[in-house]
Amino acid sequence: MNASLAVVAAPAVCAEDLRVTYRGRTVVDVPSIGLASGETYALLGASGAGKSTLLRVLGLLERPTHGRVLFDGSPVGAGDLAARRRIAAVFQKPYLLRGTVGDNVAYGLRLRGMKASQRAVRVAAVLERVGLAGWQDRSALTLSGGEAQRVALARALVLEPTFLLLDEPLSYMDPLLKRSLSLEFAAILAGEHVTSLYVTHDQDEAVVVADRIGVMREGRLVAEGDPDTVLGLPPDEWLAAFVGMEPSLRGRVTAVLDGLSEVECDGVTIYSTVQVPVGTSVLVAVRPEDVTLYVAGALLPVGSARNHFEATVAEVRPQGGSVHVTLERAGVRFAAAVSRAAASELGIAPGQRVIAVFKATAVRMRSEN
Known about the structure:
Number of strands: 20
Strand order of the largest sheet: 6-7-8-3-9-10
Oligomer: single chain
Distance between the termini: 16 Å
Number of domains: 2
Largest sheet: 6 strands, mixed
Strand content: 35-45%
Helix content: 25-40%
């Protein structure tokens, strides 16, 4: 892939020349990956992309076929007990034990020989941090799915790990609960300042929880960076399709005036608040949800967004609760996401002429150099 991979300075957890092969088939091939101290790094990709395998290798749960893992610059392996005691994990299902919430959260501390009085103090503190203060005596068998997963997170955090693994922790939740829990998990992880590797196939979840995102495809890390750049500026067709966009447009900055960059993209002029020098070759993109559509010839509201022009509907595709509309103008393709009600009201259909409107602040742009 052409997506540039970011380099983390002095990573707390990193790996070099990783390969994992099962029965002659390579399932992970990652030359390098690094997680900075205290950051939450989300591994995003479709099922079978190699995310969980990479998590197990970095978490010392599985030995790679080739390559090495380092903590704070020192090589570590699956047999390194001291290194493994620095790691805790939360998986898809909480797998709580029979007994109370307090018993479950204290389980790892009890295995490590901590005194009961010390365990009680530690458990009370971590339950408060995950929003379950005073739940020590509740039966673990009576918890809802979201409550059980917060207990699982508390069980991991109570060990005070320096490296936290989260493997699809919200995948079994319904969409509404997943949205609320992802916000809670993001706040908790940010407050803990623990280096975290978060595996998910859900883009919205990754955006909420992650400081950085890595996208995997067929065992390879094909894009890496901050969520807005990775998901907002796809440089190739595969990544664009994966994030629900058209590939980023290539253009050249022709002017910078009044805080706006004017970019020419094959005869289409786009304005962005991102400022780079005149003459710079750039990649430009706008997320479909940031594009509003009007019927061609409609009178636009006063104060409409800086970018507005007519385009032709090339394709209409239902997508969950919305409709994904691919647009063309002068050979340039981009997309809009509209509600089903709006699509019906506008009569959206292939060949229709519409006005596409989006703000200059919604335009992502970066230099190709």
